[in-house]
Amino acid sequence: MNAVKQGIIACKQKIPEQILHDAFIAPWYQYNQKYNVNPISIDEHIMINVIRQRVLPDINMTHGIRTNIPMAGCRVEMIDSYSYVVFVPKEVTGGKSVIAALGVTYLNPSMGTAMQAGITGTRSMVLGATRNLANATDGSSVMSSDQVELSGENTIYVKTYNSIRSNGGLVVTLEHDENLSAIKPRSISKFKDLIVLACKAYIYNKLSLQLDIGKLHAGHELGRYREIVDSYAEADEQYEELKETKIGKILFMNDEDAMGRHIRTMLRGVGG
Predict the structure, then answer these.
(1) pTM: predicted TM-score of the whole model, two decimal places
(2) Phi and psi for 212 in degrees, rounded to 5?
(3) Among 152, 174, 196, which residue terminates a domain?
(4) Which residue, of 6, 14, 128, 168, has the greatest Cβ tally within 10 A?
(5) What's the confidence (pLDDT) of residue 215?
(6) Helices 188-212 and 235-242: crossing angle, nearest 10°?
(7) Count of structural domains within the chain
């Protein structure tokens, strides 16, 4: 089971059902009942309002998946003598969107030939070519001074004084998929905590003011209900602290390419 599903389960285990209903179901029903729309589950509400609107954007901003995309697998259009637009197909990125363009790398001609063969073959060969490009840290891969800019969905503008070569690659950051399937099982616990804190922060923002003006439960004594909601007052701050102190490091350690580059860089330093 992936990190997101486990996080949603944890929300339902740690937050009382009535509070979840009042924060998610009641407002949705009040707004949509006149349109005769089929209701959606608590799981879907948490996915839409908490995971997609906050957790995933924060995680992608903190640490997306850095990788090298073989240029030979992309469609390249020349704008003028120094400008190109590169279209990166989703089949090369595993269906993910590019969220940042970082640079262009070039390899030696022999590796370019191998990459071209991979791109015209199966998807596994494409991924193999990507891995070869990412692992080329022995001097055969050089980051160019080309200017790059993300200009649209998986569309990258490149300004260069050299021609775009098929033996090169784009250094990009990819988004995580919405299930956070890249997160390894031993790291899931912290992401469950992050999702629960995000959910509690959402609930506090939704319900705290209503409690103050007595709109819930027809004026009945709120008692324990209010205590629980008030206990979520620090959830937003706790979420930000966990994100800043733990999540970025865990994402880095889960990124095999990033960890591999880091270890190889350290080893070269020791060897030098």
Answers:
(1) 0.73
(2) -65, -35
(3) 174
(4) 168
(5) 55
(6) 160
(7) 2
Q: What are phi and psi of 170, to 5 degrees?
A: -100, 130
Spatial neighbors of 24 by CB under 8 A, at least 6 apart, are 42, 45, 46, 49
DSSP structural state of residue 186:
G
Q: Structure tokens of 234?
A: 């620090």
User: DSSP state, 39?
Assistant: P
**Residues pairing with 75 in the sheet:** 87
Would strands 155-159 and 75-80 be described as parallel, antiparallel, or unpaired?
unpaired
CB 168 within 8 A of CB 111: no
- Mark whether 85 and 148 lie in a shared domain: yes
pLDDT beyond 80 at 81: yes
Together in a domain, 27 and 78: no
**How far is it, in rounded angstroms, from Cα 131 to Cα 179?**
23
- 156: domain range? 65-174
Taking residues 245-253, what's their average pLDDT?
85
Residue 217 maps to a domain: yes
CA distance linking residue 243 with residue 50, whole number of Å = 15
